[in-house]
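Re: beginner question about structure tokens

> Can someone show what the tokenized structure looks like for a real chain? I only ever see the sequence side.

Sure, here's an example I had lying around. Input first:
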Amino acid sequence: MTGILSIKNLVVDFKLRAGNTRALNQVSLELMNGEILGIVGESGCGKSMTALSIMGLIPSPPGKITGGSIIFDGEELLTASKTRMRQIRGGIISMIFQQSMTSLNPVLRIGDQIAECVLLHEEVTKVEAWARAVETLTMVGIPEPEIRAWGYPHELSVGMRQRVMIAMALSCRPRVLIVDEPTAALDVTVQAQIFDLLKDLQRETGIAIIMTTHDMGAIAELADRVAVLYAGHIIETGSTRDILTNPQHPYTRGLISCVPYLGENPTEVRPYLTEIKGVMPSLTGFESGCAFAPRCPYKTPICEEVRPENEAVIGVHTAACHNLKYVAAV
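And the corresponding structure tokens:
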């Protein structure tokens, strides 16, 4: 597979009363054509900030991208004009935001909201845009799409509204889809339906997907590759299989241990869930050393003094830890 989106050494700073806050610190990621890349980490680690950076939606002020590059298909997005970004945003790279109800306009018909996206990015008539809206509603499995297009968001369930958001994002046939916490506030049955829908759409259209989540179960279900984000740093990357079966960083191991586990044998149940003790450090001050060191049970003096670099483990699997061999052996 070839790369379609490349993020190199991305730095995002916020000027706050408490001082400068570094939301993203030297983040580097690569998205391949036709793959699903999962970005995982707890709340506040920088997942949504990474997605907003790609879309050019960092609130400024107080936020600002102060370093790095974001290259889409050979084009640098950080230096693109506002006009060009409006063309890219929604037309070439689409994003599904976390709160489906607040992302939809409550006083506009569903069909009008989807058609508006098409009219903004393509030279079509209103009739053709409405037909595209119905077509995409059909694609995402909305029952009776011709009727539902005339309805309003409050008339749909949370799961159906999430499908409408997916339809809106796909209406202009983008090449990259960013999904921010796709299963937030959904029950497990609806989660499974959304997972199946995203996998089917990726398989049928070949679209590349970035999914941000705190849920390792969602990663296991959907992602081809995983990037683990902590306090604005990428601390481990690799294929989903490698990350789940051979996690190297202690934070990744902690995330996996927080997920209930039921093995093939009904009696093979993890007897208890473990927690990652402590909280994420303040992002103000850009401290030296490993950001996870205050919470790490394996830390050594060097961890508090020198920031670890991502090192190759096997193949494309990398991890940023000074004690990889020791942690992996535990």
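Each token stands for a local structural state, so reading them left to right follows the chain. The mean pLDDT is 87.
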